[in-house]
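Notes, p. 3: input format for complexes.
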Amino acid sequence: VVLTELSERVLTVTVHRPEKLNALNAEVVEELRRVFHEAKTSPEVGAVIVTGAGEKAFVAGADISGFPSLTPVAARDFARKGQAVFDLLETMGKPSIAAVNGFALGGGCELAMACSMRVAAKNARFGQPEVALGLIPGYAGTQRLPRLVGKGRALELILTGDPIPADEALRIGLVNRVVEPAELIPTCRALAAKILSKAPLAVRYALEAVNHGLEQPFDEAELHEAALFGLSVATDDMKEGVAAFLEKRPAKFTGR
Ligand code: COA
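Output follows (256 residues plus coenzyme A):
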């Protein structure tokens, strides 16, 4: 249900249930947890691309067929589990790019938002349609969407449930780029390669400063930023990066 392919230090993670538009059932969510944990801990993996199988959907949401039998207690656990898996993706210390190749609805939009960046194919559609089912987003959509696009725009999407096309998602800052479908994976690969050419520890500290800092009071976040800035000065890569600049040559980073 989740396929992985490692090439040039980029792990491509494909949610693979095309007959159900890659809807997230318990098995998919558990597989994603396993794969993201592996991506976090494996030295072979430098960056992650998340996408969906087929041409129609990225992920069309949580699997609605499991909802009739949910109890309130099970539903809370269901939300906590999904939140934890997406938090793992966001905070694993490596950049992740959502390659949104079609419908990114409900849990699909939430999965894309947990990535560091989002690139959308022209045919992609984004939405949080849960209110149409008598539900609210449960995989941190109520939190990540307003942080990405602002409260007013987030509430419009969450309260109307209406999906928006890729160009509108670009206009409101929900995605970084919109490309032709054939260019989707190459664009994500090029973005990942660009990031992988930089100092790995600096990339990790920058991710941490932004992700952790946004949830702190401003002055606490500044202190944390300064501590990570100080830590980056202790790395071999900082010495190499600065020396390479001064010697007018490309840097050779080792991740130490
Ligand atoms: N959960 C379970 N199954 C889903 C699903 C979901 N979130 N989204 C799509 N599917 C299934 C459909 O039930 C259908 O299965 P079937 O062939 O066994 O009947 C199959 O995927 C294809 O979807 P279908 O609805 O026939 O495609 P469509 O092109 O007519 O519509 C969507 C596409 C995305 C608009 C529509 O599938 C949809 O609205 N899905 C639910 C989106 C949603 O509300 N997500 C949030 C859940 S909290």
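The beta strands are 2-7, 10-15, 47-52, 57-59, 96-100, 103-105, 117-121, 125-127, 164-165, 177-179.
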